[in-house]
Amino acid sequence: MKTLTAPAVLARFGKALADQTRASVLMRLKDGPAYSGELAELIGVSRQVLSNHLACLRDCGLVVAEPEGRRVRYELSDARLAHALEDLLSAILTVEPVGSCDVAEYAP
């Protein structure tokens, strides 16, 4: 198994947060486990769209899927992620906006 460097780990976390749907999933899961159907409804996306985003979050190592009979329960892979998300959000909210920070503007 390959050991990731700190910048690689942060880039992986950044990729997960770079999409509003994935960020919404993470913010919902910080409050506890949920099933895909209820996540899709709460976030306002189709189950297919949500499935693609959940796959990305699983690939990033931030979310795990736990089969429960015919349903699958999703939760954060580590409880510390809930605290990290809260801390990150509170830190960002205290920063005064200085620019548009349009991601597309900085893409190679």
From TrEMBL:
Residues 1-96 form the HTH arsR-type domain. NCBIfam families: HTH_metalloreg. This is Metalloregulator ArsR/SmtB family transcription factor. SMART domains: HTH_ARSR (SM00418).
